[in-house]
Design goal:
The structure is a homodimer. Chain A is α+β, with helices and mostly antiparallel strands. Chain A is 21% helix and 49% strand. Chain A has 3 helices and 7 strands, in the order H-E-E-E-E-H-E-E-H-E.
């Protein structure tokens, strides 16, 4: 699910914004993180540091489906410079264990790790 | 509603991704555009070129509330370099008239203009 172009975006030195969308009972909710904050596990899950994300956590307790957009204006896309991905997946908050501890050493301010298991990843641009 | 920091993000030479979220009957929908594509009218509306955006258009026919996130890693935020905004508003697709024509001269590939009337704009970072 993680192709080379997406990794190129995530590893690009010109950092960009990731949008993370969940379904709330009062409508969709959207928060952001940075491309450089997204860690990829060997089996292709995304681990994202969570400082607040309280409403996102509440929403996924009701509906664990999430959508993410990730892009970078400096990476060559399908038809011009600038590419973007739409990722769908399922989310879970991790608050202890080995993966939480590794993330905590990288991001001391986290209260949890948002784990995304990717279902689909589409290059939109 | 359009403070100087948001304008700094929109006008920054290091372009970034905007996420535009709508509510569909099948869940939230998210698309992207670039900061540099967002035009601000003298009265503070956002005009965004629409090439496709067919599902976004369909969604706003049912529910015209939208959420946008806009940010830039290079612009000083509340506590470090990197800032972001969460904007809520109402959306409409414009397919003719003076504002459509002006946008068409700037973006020849558009089929419509997505007009956002801002309700709230919050600096989140």
């Amino acid at each position: 699910m993680l192709n080379e172009k997406l990794l190129e975006v995530l590893l690009h030195p010109a950092d960009g914004e990731v949008a993370i969308v969940t379904q709330g009972i009062d409508g969709p909710h959207v928060i952001n993180t940075w491309n450089s904050y997204v860690n990829i596990t060997p089996d292709g899950r995304m681990l994202i540091p969570a400082g607040r994300m309280n409403k996102t956590e509440k929403n996924i307790e009701g509906n664990h489906l999430v959508k993410l957009t990730i892009g970078n204006r400096e990476v060559q896309g399908l038809s011009y410079k600038g590419t973007g991905f739409l990722i769908t997946g399922t989310a879970k908050f991790i608050k202890d264990g080995a993966e939480f501890n590794i993330m905590k050493t990288k991001f001391s301010w986290i209260r949890a790790v948002l784990e995304i298991t990717i279902e689909t990843s589409v290059q939109t641009l």
